[in-house]
Structures are given as C-alpha cells and as structure tokens.
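Protocol step 4 of 5: obtain the predicted structure for the target chain.
Materials: sequence only (see below). No template structures provided, no constraints applied. The aim of this step is simply to have a reference model before the mutagenesis design in step 5. Sequence pasted as it appears in the construct record:
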Amino acid sequence: MEFLSVLPWAACPLNANRTGPLEECERATPTQYFFYRETLNISPSIEENGGIHTGQALCFLLAWVITYLFIVRGVKSTGKVVYFTATFPYVVLFIYLIRGFTLHGAINGIKYMFTPKMEELANPTTWINAATQIFFSLGLGFGSLIAFASYNQYHNNFERQAIIVSLINSGTSIFSSVVTFAIYGFKATVNYENCLERTRILLLNTFSLSEDSITIDNVFERIVELNTTYPEQFAELNGKLEDCNLESELSTAVEGTGLAFIVYSEAIKNMPLSQLWSVLYFIMLLLLGMGSMLGNITAIITPLRDFKVLSCISNEVFNGIVCFICLLLGLGFTTTSGNYWFTMFNDYGATFSLLFIVLIEVITVSYIYGIKRFEKDIEDMLGHRPNWYWKIMWAGVSPLLLIGLFLFYIINYIQGGTPTYQAWNKDLGKSEQMEYPVFGQAFIGLLLVSSVSCVPLTALYVFCQRRKHAQRHMQQHTVNTVAA
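Step 4 output (structure tokens):
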C-alpha cells in the first residue's frame, strides 16, 4: 500500500454519500483513523469482541511462516539469518538519521531529548520503564541469551562479548533515540506551525486584516495587540482560538504501537518521497520483529530439545510444531479487541516477571550457588578470575537496584487503584481511559502470578524430589543396618 500515489493514512476516506470525509476521521486524524479503524478495526472496549480480523490473522500467519523458515534447521540457519536481521535496521536507521537531520524542526526534537526533566527522573516509574527496556533490548530474563550461549565453545571469551554487547546496546538506544526525536521534532514543529497558521487565518478573517499583516512569526504579538485594541471583538473568539505551544506538542508522550504506527507514520506522510520512507520504515519494523522472535523462539526450543522424549524428533518437524502452537496462542490478539489484550500482556505480563526472574537469577548465582564457586567456573573457562567490579555488581549493586525497582513496582501497582487501558472512542475520535472489567482484572492477577510461578513451583518440585530421595536413602541404610 506504500507504493500508492497517496499514502492510505494521509487523507480521510469519503463518507457513504461521498459528499465529504468521514466524521470520525475528521474528529481524529487520518493516521489515527487508519490505524484504529482500518488496520485494527478496533472494538469500543475490551468487553466487545467482533471476531478475528482476517487481514491481521493473515499477516500474523505470514509472520510465523517466515519465522519457521528462519529456524527450520535449528541454530545453524538462525545464526545466518540474524546477521541480516540485526544489521539491516542499522542501515535504515542511518538513512533516517541523515534524512531526519535535514527535516524542518528536527533540532527542536533533539533539544527536547537532551533536556533533563527532574520531575521525571525523580519518578520511580521512569526507572522501572528504563530497566524493563534494558531487559527487553538485551534479552535478559527471557532465556534467549542462555540458549544462544549454550552453543558457544567452552573457553569462549564471554566477558569481552558481554562488555561489547552492553556498549552496542546502549549506543543503539541513544542512536535510535536521536533518530526518533529528530523525526518527532519535525512532526511537532509541523503541527505547531499548522496551529499558528489556523490562528493567523482566524485573526485575519475576524478582524478583516490584510494578508501580510500577520505572519506565523508574529502571531502571538498580534494576539496581544488585537486583544488590547479590540477587546469586545476579541472576546468573541473564546473557544475558537487554539493554544499553540511547541513544548506541549513535544511533550505529548507516546510509546509502543502509538509511537511505531501513529507518530512515525504521521511524520512520514509529511516527508517528500513519503512512499520510499514508509517502505524502508516498515521493512525495518518487520526485521526487528523477526530478530526478536528468533531469540525468543530459540529460548523455547533449546531447553525443550534437552528432553529425551523430544530429542528424537527432527528439527523441521519439532520447530514447526512449536511455531504452530505459538500461532494458535496468538490468534486471540488478531480479534477486534485483541489490541487491548495485547496491551494487557505488554503492561502486566512482562515487566513484573522480568524484574522478578532477573532478581532471582542474580541472588541465586551470588548467594545460593556462591560468588566463589562462580569465580572458579569463570577462571576455568577464561583463565583468570573476574575483577572486583564484577563482584561488587553481582553481590551488591544489582540485587539492591532490582529489589528497589521490584518494590516500587508493587507499591505503584497497589496505589494505582483499578487498572486502566486506553480504548478507542469513535464518537470522540480519540482514545479515552477506561477501567478493566472484573474478568480483565482477574486475568491481570493470573498473568502476574503465572509469569513468576515457575520459580516457586520448580523450587517445590526439587525440594520434594530431594526429600523423597533422602527418605529412600534412609530406608536403604536402615535395611542394610538390620541385615548386618
């Protein structure tokens, strides 16, 4: 659809009478309407479900077919694919960086990015989101790093690789943020100047002024002058005069699908050669998604292959079965209310569990397995012991930070009251906050419990097995003693 002369989200569709644009689209923006009503065909709330969206389901099927083809022969084929899925987005981001810096108003976004907001830095939620982002980008807590590392040579220099990956990850985050805020600055500047232009025309028509008497640069000065000179006539503009503010345009925070599919798409439609930029952008998104899925699916397949029952199945068949099961589990997200369920999983199924699982991993290695034993293992593999920095991080800094974030998350969740989500209101043409229904709140609780229950359940299973083994050993010892 990107190759059309006009991008499908660039203009509102006509109404049934073909006498003008749809009212819902006019109340929103063409980009928002296209995303919520054309792409998702979203329902008014999570309680209303109109069945599976055929277009989404087919795209979802295609995504899993591509994923299967990438992993069909196991880690050998996966490794080759990752070279492309990991490097091509950098090429696109670099192209966007050059294009972004040439856009009008890009510098406004860059300035906004590097201007610290102390109230945000003092907010624990900011640090929880930052930690979660690091977990997602590095793959911590998902098992993908452990799965890929299991294929390394025994004496592989993982210390050096850990440092390189961490630096590349942080550099990529800053790099992509610069690209994002450059484009975001362009979008905010365009919206701000459009607002000024609408205000200028309103003032010209209201006070019958000449065309060149008011420009975008002197709108605010002219507003003050007209308000002083014609107070009664200016009072008639109450409710019509927009509050044009570049800072408010820049501070309109969006994340997730809103950032990827609305903000970026809205900025792209205002660029010259918008079709080219949209194609590059969505190919990059596809490859980023594929790259993430390769790591996640490998984290599932690798430990399952260690079971003797499953080890006899060929890679092609076993990987196909896993992909098919994942496809069936994800079909619920392709319904008209699926985006609300996706948001629920994103908000409550990942953050809490990642903090908990990574915290358990750090405590287990540092205090249960023991730092000294861990040091000896590293020395055996690398030929030298880790320095004091690593030990301080493992034993002190990391556990304390994770415990603090974990407690802040629980406190915020309790104090936040009833969980809410953003639902699309077609009458208003915008998203509005709604409370999750009772079944939604119950499902959130189930998500929070199920995502971390593997740790205590596994611990209970191991405890029972050891106790059972100890009892057998005591019985055997008693029998031997009696026999003697």
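Step 4 remarks: The chain has a mean pLDDT of 85. Strands lie at 420-425, 430-435.
Proceed to step 5.
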